[in-house]
Specification:
heterodimer, A: about 550 residues, alpha/beta, D-Maltodextrin-Binding Protein, domain 2, 2 domains, 23 helices, about 45% helix, about 10% strand, globular, B: about 300 residues, MetI-like fold, two-stranded antiparallel sheet, 2 strands
């Protein structure tokens, strides 16, 4: 009781201090409007002696190895909580993760990514808790991590991270609360200089794209005017109302289905929109507008696509704008090369914005999961709680003062070490701080503003604003996923094959609804859709 | 009676060759540790396997995974593709080295013979990934082979995107890579044939052709049969690494075989149990084929493997 009284006093004092520092009139809007968390004082170190925990994480490149990470070394120094990292390249993460599970050599902590290197524990993390693999941290949060919990405990966040049974199966990084749209999405990129020389404007509809691609082929000599989109993402399909690509080679489970605005689940392969899309694509293929090697091109062949664009053989593709540098790098021989973001195409000028599905939660990022093998989860949670203090937030988000950032007028500002890094500012920051801060909050947008130049942000917004982003984090139970896998096994092979044949032959594309869609139905797609609908309704009903 | 005699033999053999048995030990260990113990994992073919629960903890489902495979829309196509590709491989993989060996055997010029032998032998040492890239480049529209076909038949895509082109590409590239290597084995067998037989045949008035038919081919027949039986065991095990490197969904019609299917289900879709079931089926069918061909060889010739 006494302790609480003092902590309240400290909070008040700190709040006053914050107010005082904000008293100077500044015009910067935003972040300060977010509710300040209940700042209880956390005294360091967290443990008397050095405590070590094993962490198993995915990284995007070997340089990012957490072992060499400046920030995490500092964390260990300050808190006496040392993480012993095993960093696995995200391309191998799924396999290594499953091996780790099979060998039952659980670390204390593992990453559970949903994007690249995604792992999918059958039945989701809820099942992992029930199987005795993951720890439900919810009962511990209020006592071990009050600061963190104060921010997490909001209906819109809990809906995304709490499982059906009410577990919170990991420590999630709270990313955005201020921003209602994602910072970036998959989008189209196009040769702006060609558009200019051809006297064309930026295409926005399918018909305009046809005109533009024809011009690329006839006037600019492109042999692959439109390349297969990187990652097989459904940017063009979205114009036809198909939000998830049914023929995605790496898609499985929920990734192949999507809800419409009324909440009804669909599978693209049996939709008229998909047939129309194939009709268009096969016509373009026949006219030499669509990638003639689309069926043999690797799904993430970024260097290959960049080389084709850079040598003037291709004029457009889909992907992340962040990969722009690759394309410029390959274009040394092209004079006036301009590779810019294009809006996602609409079916006609009057169509609604196409929907784009994002399969991560809106306000949080992928969790770090504490396992049941962890001997002292309380200390680990206290560590994450400490990261939510002002000191912790600065360290986790910005790094070490004087090295990676300096305080300018009371606000952190990255130094040239980060900004001028030859790895690229964002990539180097990940190497430097490891990209996990339980509270990112307003730091996210402020950092982006420093890391990404205004022009790029504008371009990203061209893509972001051209779609209606739908956040979806629904999950199947173990039983549901077994049933869906059994049904989808043949259908996936079938549609991946038939999609290629349809693009190559307008006759196949024209007969899609009568032949292929009917075949997929006879393979039991309706049963899969019913299961998906149940799972989706359960997700939507969750409060 | 016989049993005790054999036992005695074993004891004598053990005493005499003890050192050799010790030398054998590492190999034996290798097989036990890396091939027999992992076979326990086959249990997952009868389970609904979950990595976290492990082989012993996952739910037992009996033959459900096998039934799913037998009922699969693609069951017959996989069997057909696998059998056709391996039968072609077997035919050309056995005939072409024999042919090359026989031809080389007739060559008198030593330098010429050695040159040809080396030239045909070298491709064997090229890594499969490199071979696959070479093939891709060759059959691309700009590549030499692709270019030929595009000017002859107007095929303006990579030959690897035509379902009809896949089998010939597999067979021809296999021949290119393996013929010279296997021919060496036949050449060794050929050099083992007694020269006096040829002299005797010549005295009896047998020409070149007759000598080939009645001395050379019978002389290497045991080698051909043993290699043939060994190949049959691999019949369902077509070189899937190469197929995976070369195929794409558009040509699954001819290119998708059991092992590539297992790869996709198990390693890309993480459907471990199902993939294990299909793989086990493949292995059992392969074993049955070896037994069958061995039995046939035993029945119709004197040569057999065991």
């Amino acid at each position: 009781m006494n302790k609480r009284f003092w902590s309240v006093l400290v909070v008040l004092a700190l709040a006053l201090a914050v107010l005082a520092s904000c008293a100077a009139p500044t015009n910067t809007p935003g972040p300060t409007a977010t509710p300040t968390p209940d700042i209880s004082k956390v005294s360091l170190p967290l443990a008397d002696t050095v405590q070590t925990f094993k962490a198993f994480l995915a990284i995007n490149e070997s340089a990012q190895d957490y072992k060499d990470n400046v920030v995490w070394k500092k964390v260990a120094e300050l808190t006496n909580v040392q993480l012993d990292f095993t960093s696995v390249l995200s391309s191998n993460y799924t396999t290594e993760f499953n091996l780790m599970l099979a060998a039952k050599t659980y670390p204390d902590l593992f990453a559970y990514p949903s994007g690249s290197g995604s792992v999918n524990y059958t039945g989701g993390l809820e099942q992992a808790v029930d199987d005795g693999v993951a720890l439900d941290v919810k009962p511990l949060l209020a006592t071990d991590a009050p600061l963190y919990w104060s921010l997490l405990n909001k209906p819109e966040i809990l809906r995304d991270i709490q499982t059906d049974k009410g577990y919170i199966p990991g420590v999630y990084q709270v990313t955005e609360l201020t921003n209602d749209k994602p910072a970036f999405v998959w989008g189209m990129m196009i040769r702006k200089d060609w558009l200019d020389t051809d006297g064309l404007t930026m295409p926005t509809t399918i018909d305009e794209w046809h005109t533009v691609l024809t011009a690329f082929k006839d006037k600019n000599g492109a042999t692959f005017p439109l390349l297969k989109h990187l990652g097989d993402n459904p940017i063009f399909m979205q114009a036809y109302g198909i939000v998830a690509n049914p023929a995605n080679q790496f898609g499985s489970g929920v990734g192949l289905f999507y809800p419409d605005t009324s909440g009804k689940i669909h599978y693209g392969g049996v939709e008229q929109g998909y047939a129309d899309y194939l009709k268009t694509l096969s016509a373009w293929y026949a006219e030499g507008l669509y990638d003639r090697d689309f069926d043999t091109r690797g799904i993430y062949d970024l260097p290959g696509e960049a080389a084709l664009v850079g040598t003037g053989k291709a004029g457009a593709t889909g992907g992340y704008l962040a990969w722009k540098g690759m394309f410029y790098g390959a274009a040394s021989t092209q004079t006036g090369f301009a590779w810019v973001a294009a809006p996602a195409p609409k079916l006609t000028a009057t169509s609604d914005l196409p929907s784009e599905q994002v399969t991560f939660p809106k306000y949080v990022s992928d969790p770090w999961v504490i396992t049941k093998a962890c001997k002292n989860p309380d200390l680990l949670l206290k560590l994450f709680n400490w990261m939510c203090t002002d000191q912790g937030q600065l360290l986790m988000n910005w790094g070490v003062e004087g090295d990676s950032y300096t305080m300018v007028n009371g606000k952190p500002q990255f130094t040239d070490k980060i900004l001028k890094s030859d790895k690229g500012a964002s990539a180097y920051l990940e190497i430097y701080n490891g990209n996990f801060a339980p509270l990112k909050l307003e730091h996210g947008p402020v950092q982006s503003a420093q890391l990404i130049d205004a022009a790029t942000t504008t371009e990203q917004n061209v893509q972001v604003d051209s779609v209606n982003t739908v956040y979806l984090t629904w999950q199947l139970t173990a039983d549901e996923s077994t049933q869906v896998n059994a049904i989808m096994s043949d259908i996936q092979t079938y549609i991946q094959e038939q999609y290629v044949l349809a693009v190559k032959s307008p006759t196949v594309a024209a007969g899609w609804m009568a032949t292929q869609a009917a075949q997929i139905k006879s393979m039991g797609i309706d049963n899969a859709i019913t299961i998906m609908q149940t799972a989706y309704d359960r997700y939507m009903a969750k409060k | 009676m016989q049993g005790t005699k054999r036992e005695g033999k074993i004891r004598v053999d053990w005493r005499r060759n003890r050192t050799y048995y010790f030398l054998l030990l590492p190999v034996l260990l290798y097989y036990v540790v890396f091939l027999y113990i992992p076979m326990g994992g086959l249990a997952m073919a009868f389970e609904h396997f979950s990595p976290a629960k492990g082989v012993f903890g996952s739910a037992f489902v009996g033959f459900a995974n096998f039934v799913t495979f037998f009922k699969s829309y693609y069951f017959w196509r996989l069997i057909r593709n696998t059998l056709i590709l391996s039968a072609l491989g077997l035919m050309f993989g056995v005939l072409s080295p024999v042919g090359l060996a026989l031809l080389l055997n007739e060559v008198k010029g030593r330098l010429f013979k050695k040159t040809i032998q080396t030239a045909t032998y070298i491709p064997y040492f090229i890594s499969l990934v490199v071979v696959a890239s070479l093939i891709k480049i060759f059959v691309a529209p700009e590549g030499p082979v692709g270019n030929l076909f595009s000017s002859l038949f107007g095929l303006d895509n990579s030959l690897l995107t035509y379902a009809n082109g896949f089998r010939p590409i597999m067979v021809v590239s296999d021949m290119w890579q393996m013929t010279g290597y296997i021919a060496v084995i036949y050449l060794a067998a050929l050099s083992g044939i007694d020269h006096e037989q040829y002299e005797a045949a010549r005295i009896d008035g047998a020409g070149h052709w007759k000598q080939l038919l009645h001395i050379t081919i019978p002389g290497i027949a045991p080698t051909i049969i043993v290699l043939f039986i060994l190949r049959t065991g691999q019949l369902l095990n077509v070189g899937y690494e190469k197929i995976i490197l070369l195929y794409s969904p558009g040509i699954y019609e001819t290119a998708d075989v059991i092992s590539t299917f297992v790869y996709r289900k198990g390693l890309l879709e993480f459907n471990y149990s199902y993939a294990a079931a299909v793989g086990l089926f493949n292995a059992v069918a392969g074993l049955a084929m070896v037994l069958l061909s061995n039995w046939l060889a035993k029945r119709y010739t004197d040569t057999r493997l065991f």
